[in-house]
């Protein structure tokens, strides 16, 4: 004890008795194979009811039109009245599919530098935004841009040392996807399904707005329309979010099931 050097570090640990350790020689490194079955029947039923309800709204109010309170056919509730909304939904969906395809190509090409590039671009673009705002005389926009630029710099500085680990994970994921390219077909299928759902939901919400909104003329002869019922809006947005989450999570577990094998 007298010869103990206090400058040496003290290491503490727990003694493990190997004689009581279970034999894991049969462990293959993979989990148990689970039997395929529906594990959330209640939410599956809610999904079917949700999609059927939206499709029913579109079928009754968005396509057939129905009749107004006066008994006349309401031309605005036919599908022709929603062409503008449908075109917008189709355009945004097509852009999303194209952008997803380009993003996947870029990701597979440069996974090693993608994280650093995106982080640097965030800092540069926020700085450009602040500079342009100040140059245009927009003081408020310039101050907001400067704050975002400062926060972006702080964030980049704080996470820069962790980028190699994140890059290694990204490269590993890209190699897993490239060795199972068939999963990209499932990804595009779910993207198309999400796009179709967005179009269907867009027609439904416009149809509900058209059917539930009443317009009357005031004493000055100006037509005043009431806002859509907030309860209907809440249910419609909940329906949209719920279905999109189901599609997204289904894709996630499909990819995880293929890559994790």
TrEMBL record:
<feature type="region of interest" description="Disordered">
    <location>
        <begin position="15"/>
        <end position="35"/>
    </location>
</feature>
<dbReference type="GO" id="GO:0022857">
    <property type="term" value="F:transmembrane transporter activity"/>
</dbReference>
<comment type="function">
    <text>Choline transporter.</text>
</comment>
<feature type="transmembrane region" description="Helical">
    <location>
        <begin position="143"/>
        <end position="160"/>
    </location>
</feature>
<feature type="transmembrane region" description="Helical">
    <location>
        <begin position="84"/>
        <end position="107"/>
    </location>
</feature>
<keyword id="KW-0472">Membrane</keyword>
<feature type="transmembrane region" description="Helical">
    <location>
        <begin position="119"/>
        <end position="137"/>
    </location>
</feature>
<feature type="transmembrane region" description="Helical">
    <location>
        <begin position="228"/>
        <end position="247"/>
    </location>
</feature>
<feature type="transmembrane region" description="Helical">
    <location>
        <begin position="181"/>
        <end position="208"/>
    </location>
</feature>
<keyword id="KW-1133">Transmembrane helix</keyword>
<feature type="transmembrane region" description="Helical">
    <location>
        <begin position="42"/>
        <end position="64"/>
    </location>
</feature>
<feature type="compositionally biased region" description="Basic and acidic residues">
    <location>
        <begin position="20"/>
        <end position="35"/>
    </location>
</feature>
<dbReference type="GO" id="GO:0005886">
    <property type="term" value="C:plasma membrane"/>
</dbReference>
<comment type="similarity">
    <text>Belongs to the CTL (choline transporter-like) family.</text>
</comment>
<protein>
    <recommendedName>
        <fullName>Choline transporter-like protein</fullName>
    </recommendedName>
</protein>
<dbReference type="InterPro" id="IPR007603">
    <property type="entry name" value="Choline_transptr-like"/>
</dbReference>
<keyword id="KW-0812">Transmembrane</keyword>
<dbReference type="Pfam" id="PF04515">
    <property type="entry name" value="Choline_transpo"/>
</dbReference>
């Amino acid at each position: 004890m007298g010869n103990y050097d206090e400058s040496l570090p003290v290491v503490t640990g727990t003694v493990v008795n190997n004689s009581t350790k279970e034999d894991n020689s049969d462990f293959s490194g993979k989990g148990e194979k689970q039997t395929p079955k529906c594990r959330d029947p209640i939410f599956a039923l809610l999904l079917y009811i949700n999609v059927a309800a939206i499709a029913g709204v579109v079928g009754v109010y968005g396509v057939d039109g129905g009749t107004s309170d006066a008994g006349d056919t309401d031309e605005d509730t036919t599908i022709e009245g929603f062409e503008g909304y449908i075109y917008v939904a189709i355009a945004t969906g097509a852009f999303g599919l194209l952008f997803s395809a380009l993003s996947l190509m870029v990701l597979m090409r440069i996974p090693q530098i993608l994280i650093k590039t995106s982080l640097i671009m965030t800092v540069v673009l926020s700085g450009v935004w602040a500079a342009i705002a100040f140059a245009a005389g927009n003081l408020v926009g310039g101050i907001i841009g400067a704050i975002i630029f400062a926060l972006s710099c702080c964030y980049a500085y704080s996470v820069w040392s962790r980028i190699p680990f994140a890059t290694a994970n990204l490269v590993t994921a890209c190699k897993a996807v490239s060795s199972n390219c068939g999963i990209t077909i499932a990804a595009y299928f779910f993207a198309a399904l999400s796009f179709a759902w967005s179009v269907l939901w867009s027609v439904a919400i416009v149809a509900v707005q058209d059917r539930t909104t009443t317009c009357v003329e005031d004493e000055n002869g100006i037509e005043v329309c009431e806002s859509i019922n907030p309860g209907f809006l809440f249910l419609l947005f909940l329906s949209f979010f719920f279905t999109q989450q189901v599609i997204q999570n289904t894709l996630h577990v499909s990819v995880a099931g293929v890559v994790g094998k």
